[in-house]
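Retry 2 of 3 after timeout on previous attempt. Resubmitting structure tokens to design endpoint.
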């Protein structure tokens, strides 16, 4: 059975693998998991502007799930897929703790028997501010993540798709999806430099992710912003940034003989709350009328980026995976 993302209908989902609640900042914002083995791990992120717009993403295949916790980790797995999450406490320097958290995640999913990580989400408070050493917090985070990939005895066959956005709760939260049987196909955007090849101006250790991951006929698109090559395009111009994002998504999907209509579940991250209506209108003009689109207000990984889009879609199946160098 394939992995599915069900939005909102938590009570109607049998055997949830993992639940991610997107709530207003006034709500509970901690990573948590129920102690009973029959329950799923639950991540809570305060990134919705109004409580009435809170929603949950529920990852499920419909198979029975084993859920639990180990040290700081929470997890759920069903024989083919695993969901795992961890929270890193606030720190003046994040790299060491992020390195250790990522190593723990990679070792945990390997021990559970799900070594093929294909999708990761990261929320990082104040990510464009400076840490105790004067280094940008996002670059501090990227250093810890890269060190974990260097040191881990669990070698990823392909870099996963990923999202990194600001967090309004305490500390860094990381959660991921992995599978048991085969690596994913890592995809890059012909209009963008691969993130793992960014020049040193973006940090001594570049971001370690692919622009998208494909498993069977499922596409998992990373957080996509107004970046051409490796540079921000149209700084300060919201409509132009949105158009560039749609172009980037279109170029990436075209590599899989797909277009924007393939995207079924979409999350749009907006830096400034007053921009929501403009972004909503532009997205309504470009995405399929029956696509589920949710809008979140949070910081983004560059101070000149105003909006970012991630998505899950479906297209025709493929039979092989590639290994990134």
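Retry 2 succeeded. Sequence:
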């Amino acid at each position: 059975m394939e992995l599915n993302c069900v939005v909102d209908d938590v009570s109607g989902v049998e055997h949830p693998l993992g639940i991610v609640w997107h709530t207003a900042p006034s709500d509970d914002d901690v990573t948590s998991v129920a102690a009973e083995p029959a329950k799923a791990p639950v991540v809570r992120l305060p990134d919705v502007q109004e409580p009435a717009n809170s929603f949950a993403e529920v990852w499920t295949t419909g198979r029975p799930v084993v859920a639990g916790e180990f040290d700081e980790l929470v997890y759920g797995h069903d024989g083919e897929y695993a969901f795992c999450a961890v929270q890193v406490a606030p720190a003046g320097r994040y790299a060491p703790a992020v390195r250790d958290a990522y190593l723990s995640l990679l070792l945990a999913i390997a021990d559970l028997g799900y070594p093929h990580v294909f999708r990761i989400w990261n929320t990082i408070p104040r990510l464009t501010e400076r840490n105790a050493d004067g280094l940008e917090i996002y670059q501090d985070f990227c250093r810890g993540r890269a060190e974990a990939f260097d040191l881990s005895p669990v070698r990823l066959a392909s870099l996963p798709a990923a999202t990194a956005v600001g967090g309004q709760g305490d500390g860094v939260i990381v959660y991921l999806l992995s599978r048991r049987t085969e690596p994913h196909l890592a995809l890059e955007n012909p209009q963008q430099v691969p993130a793992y090849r960014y020049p040193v101006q973006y940090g001594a250790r570049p971001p370690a992710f692919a622009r998208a991951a494909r498993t069977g006929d499922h596409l998992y698109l990373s957080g996509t912003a107004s970046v051409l090559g490796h540079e921000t395009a149209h700084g300060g111009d919201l409509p132009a940034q949105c158009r560039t994002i749609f172009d980037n998504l279109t170029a990436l999907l075209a590599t899989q003989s797909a277009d924007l209509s393939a995207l079924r579940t979409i999350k749009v991250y907006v830096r400034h709350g007053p921009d929501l209506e403009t972004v909503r209108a532009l997205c309504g003009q470009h995405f399929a009328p029956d696509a589920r689109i949710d809008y979140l207000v949070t910081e983004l990984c560059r101070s000149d980026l105003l909006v970012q889009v991630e998505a899950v879609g479906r297209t025709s199946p493929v039979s092989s995976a590639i290994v990134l160098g």
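Attempt log closed. The first strand starts at residue 4 and ends at 7.
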